[in-house]
Sequence to fold (199 residues):
Amino acid sequence: MTPPTFKADLLRYLQDARDALLWKLEGLSEYDIRRPLTPTGTNLLGLVKHVTFVELGYLGDTFGRPSGVPSPWAAPAYADDPNADMWATADESREDVVARYREAWAHADATVEALPLDTQGQVPWWPSGNDITLHHALVRVLADTHRHAGHADILRETLDGTVGMREDNSSLPTDDAAWWKEYRDRLERTAEEAARKAQ
Fold:
């Protein structure tokens, strides 16, 4: 058995987050993957588009390995819409956004495979102190992707009740709706009791 490496461990957990994020799109309509579900417009397809450019930027451009895909953060696009990476236009199909994300994975993984973790890069969009190691960039992308996969978990549960890390592993103690209703009701009662005690 080959012993694990730091790179392999980091890439494994990054891939878990990538897969989870894409799974949250499955079975939903075009409307549901695009609709804004928070006051700041967070939406499922927009999260996928965002992490695509996070990977291309931090694990591509930062290390002199541009992908050739124009960044929505580049001027003048950013000036026109500073949130352009957080939503997909009606002309950007689900298939195109997902395919671009998968291409970003391949590009990012190639960067990680090609360079030592202590390789120095420069983050072009940081105004100052823009030096970063590949290790730092990879951890940053891993954390960002898991954060957004968590957002996607909540959005998807809000939409249709689908929950869990993966289709084959919900990571929940049960799928019994009655158990969850009783559990949620218990939490509501506890919150009300704590609020009364705090008065």
Notes: The longest helix spans residues 134-160. The chain has a mean pLDDT of 91. The two ends are 60 Å apart (CA to CA).
